[in-house]
TrEMBL record:
Keywords: ATP-binding, Hydrolase, Iron, Iron-sulfur, Metal-binding, Nucleotide-binding. The lineage of its organism: Bacteria, Bacillati, Bacillota, Clostridia, Lachnospirales. It comes from Anaerostipes butyraticus. The keyword NAD does not apply. SUPFAM superfamilies: P-loop containing nucleoside triphosphate hydrolases. One of its GO terms (molecular function) is ATP binding. This is Iron-sulfur cluster carrier protein. Binds and transfers iron-sulfur (Fe-S) clusters to target apoproteins. Can hydrolyze ATP. Homodimer.
């Protein structure tokens, strides 16, 4: 590795220069939980549509008849409950195990926003506390017979997402980016981070790729030309989708109706992921 500091105790990469056994940071599941497949939704920075993509993928999986869950790991900016219109407070069982909330169509959700006294309360916690919360969402919740779980990962490639990468046994990740990010190195950093952790990159999704003129149907590339195919080729990963800026998506998210939306953009993707 080019940035190796030869301190294997502080690194999770399983590279050729490793001199110490790899430490296992994985958080165990609660004994009554079972999750067949765990997919992390990752972005190089915030606000690019990671939660939107997580929600759309979960809805698509649920519609395929899979028992689906969302672990909202974006602890400081949790937007999953809003997209599904969830507001009730989460309950714990006698052992203090979190019981996930159920959406109208049966997706199981755990999110910090369902635990706060006030949904508008800011979460101003330091990194280790944030990553600890995500670990607890994985290990201290009752995830019963889940076929596929989507983890809305904390944004970026810093300490918090790194700890989540190490604590939750991800089967793979999907990277979401806007066209601007695809010009820079942010996406490549996210892809490389996953590779260093030996986590397969299942594919890339370009969000806010274009806007369709409602009058003539022409696709306008507001943020410039797409570079997603070049990056996908460079890293040999598939492009799973290109989502336009669609006011119907914003409206559905804002009104908690994401499950009622016809999921035209990511419908076919589930067969490639699960
Ligand atoms: N393709 C799209 N068309 C229309 N609106 C979108 C689209 N993608 C995302 N949005 C809207 O943009 C906002 C940000 O999206 P989202 O919350 O999914 O981003 P995020 O990457 O999860 O951000 P953060 O990491 O800050 O939580 C939301 O209001 C969402 O409804």
């Amino acid at each position: 590795m080019s940035d190796c500091n030869h301190d294997c105790g502080s690194c999770s990469a399983n590279c050729g220069s490793r001199t110490q056994e790899q430490t296992n940071f994985l958080e165990p599941l609660y004994r009554e939980s079972s999750v067949k497949k765990v997919i992390g939704i990752v972005s190089g920075k915030g606000g690019v549509g990671k939660s939107m993509t997580t929600s759309l993928l979960a809805v698509a999986a649920m519609r395929k008849g899979l028992h689906t869950a969302i672990l909202d790991g974006d602890v400081t900016g949790p937007s999953i409950p809003q997209a599904f219109g969830l507001h009730e407070r989460l309950l714990g069982n006698a052992e203090g195990i979190i019981m996930p909330a159920l959406t109208n169509f049966g997706i199981e959700v755990v999110s910090l926003n369902l635990m706060l006294e006030e949904e508008t309360q800011p979460v101003i916690w330091r990194g280790p506390v944030v990553s600890d919360v995500v670990k607890q969402f994985w290990g201290k919740a009752l995830w019963k017979d889940i076929d596929v779980m989507f983890v809305d990962m904390p944004p970026g490639t810093g300490e918090v997402p790194l700890t989540v990468f190490q604590s939750v046994p991800l089967d793979g990740i999907v990277v979401v980016a806007t066209p601007q990010e695809l010009v820079g190195m942010i996406v490549e950093k996210a892809v490389n981070m996953a590779k260093m952790m030996n986590i397969p990159v299942l594919g890339l999704i370009e969000n806010m790729s274009y806007i369709k003129c409602p009058d003539c149907g022409k696709e306008i590339r507001v943020f410039g030309d797409s570079h997603i195919d070049e990056i996908a080729e460079k890293y040999q990963v598939p492009v799973l989708g290109k989502l336009p800026i669609d006011p119907k998506l914003t409206e559905a998210c804002d009104n908690g109706l994401i499950e009622n939306l016809e999921n035209i953009y990511l419908d076919g993707v589930i067969d490639l992921l699960v």
